[in-house]
């Protein structure tokens, strides 16, 4: 039963059960032969978390499909993973902000004939600055990558991951998902969306064997701050990329993987506190950390 903000039943919010949309015409997970290795599709695989996730999955015997705009760093990573772990590493240069990117990636994966057992939606970026002065085209790109691509790729690959019986879906959110981010307004909003979407998928797929996780890193030693133009951030001590990915795999290795996990003890405390403190106080603190 859906309630209006006043607490009464709102017929406009009381929806009938949604009909299932047709499954993609292309199956991302055709029946596997015993000799095929499981594969992980990883976006944002040219740097940072994407590189580390690729290394971890390769070390666990997964073939990898590396997805990002920059071919050269991905090719170097692919060569490294093949040499060190004997896996197949495929490079797919792709701009995920394009409207047809999801369908194109799925078609590439099918053409590669890999047995997809994991999807890591890691690609994303933020932009520092006052919202009133933000470039509209960059806002649209940020939403396209951080929200639309994550949503559509999750939807496109989810049927195959469910069919596998032991699939993994990791969507990289942020500690910014736990409170609004002045001067990072769009980024924080997109990461709140990612966390909410992922936790909903977690609940919908319980008992299927699929592991679903929203990973919320705090400030980490990646290219994020440079790309965001955020040299003014007062972020304190940053975590290393391997330390954050360790947190993700510890959660995935649990028998009952939680819907989301925050990397770093201090970040966990901050995330919990953000939900308990008065909103004005939380915003004031966030503004001091990220403001001019």
Automatic annotation (TrEMBL):
UniProt-listed InterPro entries: NAD(P)-bd_dom_sf, SDR_fam
Pfam name, any one: adh_short
Transmembrane stretches, start-end: none
UniProt KW keywords: Oxidoreductase
Family: Belongs to the short-chain dehydrogenases/reductases (SDR) family.
PANTHER family: DEHYDROGENASE/REDUCTASE SDR FAMILY MEMBER 7B (PTHR44196), SHORT-CHAIN DEHYDROGENASE-RELATED (PTHR44196:SF2)
Descriptive protein name: Oxidoreductase
Region (Disordered): 1-38
GO MF assignments: oxidoreductase activity
Ranges of Low complexity composition bias in the record: 28-38
Gene3D superfamilies: NAD(P)-binding Rossmann-like Domain
Domain of life (superkingdom): Bacteria
Keyword Oxidoreductase appears in the UniProt entry: yes
GO CC aspect terms: membrane
